[in-house]
Amino acid sequence: MSKPALTELLHAAVTAVGGVERPGQVSMAEAVAAVIDETSHLLVQAGTGTGKSLGYLVPALAHGERVVVATATLALQRQLIERDLPRTVEALKPLLRREPQYATLKGRSNYLCLHRLHEGVPSDTEDGLFDPMEQIGGPTSKLGKDLLRLRDWADETETGDRDALSPGVSDRAWSQFSVSSRECLGASKCPYGTECFAEAARERAKLADVVVTNHALLAIDAIEGAPVLPSHEVLIVDEAHELVSRVTGAATGELTPGGVNRAVKRSAKLVNEKVADALLSASEGFERLMELALPGRLETVPEDLAYALAALRDACRQVITSLGEVRDKSVVDEDAIRQQALASIESVHEVAERLLQANEYEVIWCERHDRFGASLRIAPLTVSGLLREKLFVERSVVLTSATLKLGGDFNGVAASLGLSPEDSQGAEGGNEAEQPVWRGIDVGSPFDYPKQGILYVAKHLRQPGREGSRDDMLDELAELIEAAGGRTLGLFSSMRAAQAAAEAMRSRLDLPVLLQGEETLGELIRTFAASAPTCLFGTLSLWQGVDVPGSHCQLVVMDRIPFPRPDDPLMSARQKDVEEHGGNGFTAVAATHAALLMAQGAGRLIRSMDDRGVVAVLDPRLATARYGSFLRASMPPFWYTVDRNQVRKSLAAIAATADAS
Q1: For an engineered disulfide with 542, which of 157, 310, 483, 538 has Cβ 3.0 to 4.6 Å away?
Q2: Pairing relation of β-strands 488-491 and 535-538?
Q3: pLDDT-based confidence at 333, cuts 50/70/90?
Q4: Average confidence score pLDDT of the chain
Q5: Looking at residue 267, which CATH number applies to its domain?
């Protein structure tokens, strides 16, 4: 019997999920099917409302090879596992004459650890919570209630997956009953190995046709020597605009005095006095230096810091050797205590060694935090080479997002992923064996952006400076919010700016203003979505994490172009590196960073076919600077204006229509 046509499969899947077939979705599905057949690679920009999940799931399921889908957000993982995949598989089963299996796989710390649950936390943790209930105020405290809920949930859960627990618990509570991969005893040594939730998830993933995971685990799979994910012929990266950031985060090492002290406490009782004293001395030396450390990039590691790091590395190496040799059978649950100590010490040793061996391809810097103190960090200057070598080999890769074309083409995002410019592939003299073959397509959006939205740039305002108040911007913001009757999502470049704006609007306007940080993000978004006059102000997570279709979000305001801070160590190092190699560092790094955020932020406005509204950018540089056209080309193609009177009339008319309905 001949294989069913892709269009037939897609129609069945769309009908099953209650969606509407879009031309862009069909184009995407056909392109995905083609690159899977060719074992090549695809960057596909699919605007909000396209239905891109089915656009990649249907051709992947039809092909029959194992596919890994990596997403950035929990919301999309849930949508895939709980909605899209079950309905799609059921709809395609009679057409494919088989039933594809699917599973989800996350890092080990996302699963409940039965050993921790039944045997308790090793007694040398920083909280001393061997018996948590004795030290947290009893079962009536917030932490106590969370721990009791976790114990009850452990008896009923089939997966042990933290994300399946609703409502959730605090990180502190979860940490009592979870372990990292390093802390894990291993299934063969653990008395609960045969019942382990994490091991069961890995076994299900090995048997599945579709494995849904997250960017973090994909990054670990690429960085670590041993594979974490099952072998797969197709990789689909959804929300791909986040991938470089997530991989960079996974590849960043950090040393803090607090982390080093925890490692010392966990291991000192398990080694002889001489080894313990050497570790304590090295830890104290590192802590003294960090107390005086100034924030900023370290072009080279200073001599005194190098000496302290070498002492710390050598002391950790002695502890690692000693922990492998000495075993005290009188210690209760000695294996778990030893494994936790070893995990902490190995982590400190690896980062200290990496800092000492750093080359020109890594960036070292110091950060200071009011609450957590100083930290020393090291990150790769770029992850493009790592991604090129680890991701685009022996498999087809599809990367998709609503925002992959920056400045009108895919080359900026492609370069960050280790891909050559699209128009240079196969150029004479190029080494095609080392350059992955890819193409980019933009399947558009079902929304009519020029008719549904306006991009307004407040060209008359003063250019924002590094510091200081912007009274003219606050005046403009108040007038826009009044015209819109609330209904405003305020996206700010810093928390300080968001707080100042919230304080000013609360004193000037008789409208509720919600501020990120004053309540959980989920609760803030729910309140905003439920009340038309309400405004919601915040910073980075709101630029990308808000989905409020309908009339309760009709004005999205950006206070300024979100360039990275000039003193951001990693961004400035990357910009300098591009310039030293003859490129335009500002465009490649700072402008690309800002373009991605502005594209994401502007995407908060139109979320359905009936939405209408305004994106207002209160930074005149978007209209006057040479790079303004690059940034505007990265945003949805709204109708563009700098006429302040026109935009107020439009906002008032949109609000009146919403009130009338």
Answers
A1: 538
A2: parallel
A3: low
A4: 89
A5: 1.20.120
Would you say residue 125 has pLDDT above 50?
Answer: no
Q: What is the DSSP letter of 463?
A: P
Residues 566 and 498 in one domain: yes
Sheet with 639-641, edge to edge strand ranges? 513-515, 535-538, 488-491, 555-558, 613-617, 453-457, 639-641
Contact call for residues 192 and 118 (beta carbons, < 8 A)? yes
Phi, psi of 400, rounded to the nearest 5 degrees? -135, 150
pLDDT tens, position by position, 404-452: 999 989 999 999 999 988 766 655 444 545 678 899 999 999 999 999 9
Do 288 and 339 fall within a single domain?
Answer: yes
Same-domain status, 567 and 424 = no
HSE (side-chain half, CA atoms, 13 Å) at 599: 29
pLDDT of res. 430: 46
User: Per-residue pLDDT for 120 more than 80?
Assistant: no
Question: Do 279 and 366 fall within a single domain?
Answer: yes
Domain stops at, among 364, 380, 396: 380
Question: What is the amino acid identity at position 344?
Answer: S
Per the CB < 8 A criterion, the answer to whether 46 and 121 are in contact is: no
Between the alpha carbon of residue 332 and those of residues 84, 130, 269, 326, 341, the distances in Å are: 47, 11, 13, 15, 15
Q: What is the predicted pLDDT for the residue at 235?
A: 97
Confidence of residue 661 (pLDDT cuts 50, 70, 90): low
* Helix ranges restricted to H, 454-515: 471-484, 495-508
What local confidence, expressed as pLDDT, does residue 127 receive?
A: 44
Within a domain: residue 391?
A: yes
Name the residue among 544, 551, 599, 560 with its Cα closest to residue 477.
560
130 has pLDDT over 70: no
Provide the strand spans (E) within 464-618.
488-491, 513-515, 535-538, 555-558, 613-617
The stretches of 4-124 forming alpha helices (DSSP H) are 6-16, 23-38, 52-63, 74-78, 85-96, 114-119
214: helix, coil or strand?
A: strand
Mean pLDDT, range 227-231, rounded to an integer: 90
Residues of the domain holding 28: 6-101+208-245+383-442
Torsion of CA 379, 385, 387, 388, to 10 degrees: 180
Per-residue confidence (pLDDT) for residue 328, from 0 to 100: 47
Q: How far is it, in rounded angstroms, from Cα 620 to Cα 629?
A: 12
Task: Tell me the CATH number at 621.
Answer: 3.40.50.300
Q: Specify the residue for token string 């409502």.
A: 167
Q: Answer yes or no: do 536 and 590 share one domain.
A: yes
Number of domains making up the chain: 4
Sign of CA dihedral 124, 125, 129, 130: negative
pTM for this entry: 0.89
Contacts of 366 (CB under 8 A, 6+ apart): 290, 293, 294, 295, 296, 298, 374, 375, 376, 377
Which of these ranges, 74-83, 194-203, 525-534, has the smallest mean pLDDT?
74-83
Is 1 domain-assigned? no
Cα–Cα distance measured from residue 347 to residue 374, given in angstroms and rounded to the nearest whole number: 18
